[in-house]
Every structure is written in structure tokens, then in C-alpha cells.
Specification:
The protein has 191 residues and is α+β, with helices and mostly antiparallel strands. It has helices at residues 2-56, 135-140; strands at residues 64-67, 70-77, 81-84, 93-108, 114-115, 121-125, 130-131, 151-152, 157-166, 172-177, 186-189. Helix content is 32%, strand content 33%. Strands 1, 2, 3, 4 and 9 form a 5-stranded antiparallel β-sheet that branches. It has a 4-stranded antiparallel β-sheet with strand order 7-6-10-11, with no helix packed on it. A two-stranded antiparallel ribbon has the order 5-8. It is elongated, with a radius of gyration of 32 Å. The protein starts with a helix and ends with a strand.
């Protein structure tokens, strides 16, 4: 009979240790999950504040903003012209509607030389139509400060004008810069 008693004690002690371990495990998780819930709630609050800040962030003419590795400023959106680069020796570029000149500057904040691609810049009218820049006007307008494709070394800034051929009755509302695949687009209101 004593052998049976000896064999029971290890089982009883083991069962008590197991119950205490399980209670500690589940009891500890309750405390951690409460802390985790508080941490998750704080993180969600911080994320929604950051999202509100992004939504509230406004851009305007003359104000710098970031797009990818570039710091860009839309200096001005000037009065439309019917042609660019016309002189006594050449006809230059003639608009289908009229050219809207957009003066801007872009600083390369990256770590290597890069080209500022004008294709990432669009004009948008009040109806949501998008207009691309005119490469013809860009070629003819280099003497008038046109932005040509050239490598811009890190820390350097390129300045110039892009011309957008738009219908004469278009009501341009914004200049839109599309970033890369992972960057957000930036819209600068014209008025």
C-alpha cells in the first residue's frame, strides 16, 4: 500500500505545478493583452492623426513639397501663349489651343544623379481632364527657360518652364505631380 501512496505524490505535485503554470500563463496573457490593447489603441490613434495631417497638408504656388527624391516648387502658372520659340528664322512650336507655361524648380534630394521627368507633371482642369506637357514646345522654348532632360546631381536644382497645350476654353485648376510607384501624388491648386 505504501508503494501506491509513493506513486501518487509525484502525480499530485505534478498536477499542482501544471495548474499553477496554466493559471500563470493565462493570467499573464490577460495582463499583456490589456497592455497590448492599450498599445494598439494608442498606435491607431497616432496613425489616424498622421492620416489627418496628410489630408490637411495643403500645397500652393511658391511652396516647396516632396515628391520621391525631389523637392519641387511650382513658381507660377503664367498667361497662355499661342506659340513658343517663334523668331525671324523659325516658326517655333504652334499650339493646337494655347500653351500654358508653368515655371518650376526641382532639387535632387537623392544620393545619385537623376533626371526630372516632365511626364510626371500634368495640368488638370475643373472637369478632371489631364493635359501633358508639350515636348515640341519644350525643345523650342529652351531659350525662354524650358526644362530640358538633363542629369541633375544630388543637391543641385534645375529650374525652367514646361508648356502645356490646352484648349483655349479649358479652366485649369491644378498642377499634379505623380510620384513613383510607392510615392503619393501631389496636387497644387492654381487659383
Amino acid at each position: 500500500m505504501e508503494e501506491k501512496k509513493k506513486k501518487r505524490w509525484p502525480w499530485i505535485v505534478g498536477a499542482i505545478v501544471l495548474v499553477v503554470a496554466i493559471a500563470g500563463f493565462f493570467g499573464g496573457n490577460k495582463g499583456n493583452s490589456g497592455e497590448s490593447a492599450q498599445t494598439n489603441s494608442a498606435a491607431q490613434t497616432q496613425n489616424s492623426k498622421a492620416a489627418e495631417t496628410k489630408e490637411e497638408e495643403s500645397y500652393s504656388l511658391g511652396k516647396e513639397f516632396k515628391v520621391g527624391d525631389w523637392t519641387v516648387t511650382v513658381v507660377s502658372v503664367d498667361e497662355p501663349v499661342s506659340d513658343v520659340g517663334k523668331n525671324e528664322f523659325a516658326e517655333g512650336a504652334k499650339a493646337q489651343g494655347h500653351f500654358i507655361p508653368v515655371k518650376m524648380k526641382a532639387k535632387n534630394d537623392g544620393s545619385k544623379s537623376a533626371i526630372f521627368f516632365a511626364d510626371s507633371v500634368k495640368l488638370k482642369d475643373s472637369d478632371g481632364k489631364e493635359f501633358s506637357y508639350s515636348s515640341d514646345a519644350a525643345i523650342w522654348g529652351t531659350e525662354q527657360g524650358g526644362m530640358i532632360l538633363e542629369d541633375v546631381n544630388p543637391g543641385n536644382t534645375v529650374e525652367g518652364v514646361l508648356w502645356f497645350d490646352t484648349p483655349t476654353d479649358a479652366s485649369i485648376s491644378e498642377v499634379v505631380f505623380s510620384g513613383g510607384l510607392l510615392d503619393k501624388s501631389v496636387s497644387v491648386p492654381v487659383k
